[in-house]
Amino acid sequence: MSQWTTAQNRPLIPNANDYLYEKKYVSIQSDDRNIIKYPNSSDFTIQLPQDYLNVQYIQLASWAFPANYSVFSKCSHNLTLYFKFDSLYNPAGQGITNVSFAALQTAIYNQLNANLANQYTVTIENGFYNPTQMATELTNKMNDTIQSYLISQGVEMSFVDDDENTIPYFYSEFVIIYNTVGQRLWFGNRSSIFTLINDSILYASNVLSNNISCTGSNILPSFSNWGLPAYLGFFHCNSSSKAPDNGKYVRFYYDDTIGTETGNPYYLDGYGIAGVWLYPNINLPGAQVSVLTAPQKINFIGPSYLYMELKTGGTSLNGIDETSPYNVSNFTSTTNQTNSSVNSCFAKIPIPTTPISQWFDSEMKPYKWFDPPAERISQVSVKFRFHNGLLADFGNFDYSILLEFNLLKPCILRNQNITTFGSGITKTNR
Questions:
Q1: Were 241 and a residue from 42, 113, 146, 290 both cysteine, which residue would form a disulfide, CB within 3.0 to 4.6 Å?
Q2: Per-residue pLDDT at 215 exceeds 60
Q3: Residue 8: helix, strand or coil by DSSP?
Q4: pTM, full prediction
Q5: Domains of the chain (ranges plus CATH)?
Q6: Which residues contact 364 (CB under 8 A, 6 or more apart)?
């Protein structure tokens, strides 16, 4: 039969339904995006180098990310701590000999006592902390909060010593330290009793306001990470300090180097009780310490996974279903259905390190299968977020991903007759 038609002079090539399986790799750098249009590298769209036709599936082949995220940030609503005093050191009748110093302590007591029913706010710096840095940050911030309040109320924070010298005075009664054995924070005050307000309604209002101010974020409510106290090891209820069992000081027995600083009445010239980190203010006669221990270990590690969303045009390429944090709402209380998400993300990428570093991986290879194959893919939109919906913040650090496109290319039917020389054997190949 002729392969030529009467209408044209071109042969009809039959469809063999055979395809060539081809892999194409596309490297995408976050700094190649349109930075003017997409200032946040966690969410952008990019045009691919060419149109990829008959795509059988897309796979995430490898990736390299910087670990520079901030565990503590405004958008994570975990920078704020609230506290108040329950009882204060009263200098009256305590026998302070310096008249000027006694007057200063009286003014401090009067102002703090007048504000006894109200709470104070501490806001730590955005970033990543190790436990010792957090203890130091909280110590300085809590003391500075009281110092600033007293100054705002007109208290002159200085006194005249016995030699007629004016000495500046800084409120320094709070002492926070990290117990490296128990991995817990211990909060202490050298003269007063205090309470951490962990059930403050302001924690919930911070979540709402941050959802508005943090562009692109939709933070889900969480029972575990609801605010700074949760990361410090506290439950969602108030915690009050109390006097130690011995009524005098608080000691760590595992480290003799703690509490050896100048002025510690329990460690003089290398003698005495080592490990005493909290003791009464030696300048305040009759002062008694109070201590509060976090009931749980600290949690400064940050998120364990990074979630990648992928789409092309208006078509989602996500294929992983994802559960959502339980929350008390009308829906969860009136139905047994789930509040989770179907096809929520394309890949779930583990974060194996803490800042500042970089991690690489290619072991887990999530993919999206097309049946029938996708006709054409010319651009992709990528988005990186955490489980609570907060966008990852890579700052000015770049990252790279490698996408694998598996393409099906139609083949032309070809018959080949090959005769082996000298044998007379003919083999037919298609």
A1: 290
A2: no
A3: coil
A4: 0.82
A5: 16-69+303-410 (2.60.120), 80-293 (no CATH)
A6: 60, 347, 348, 349, 350
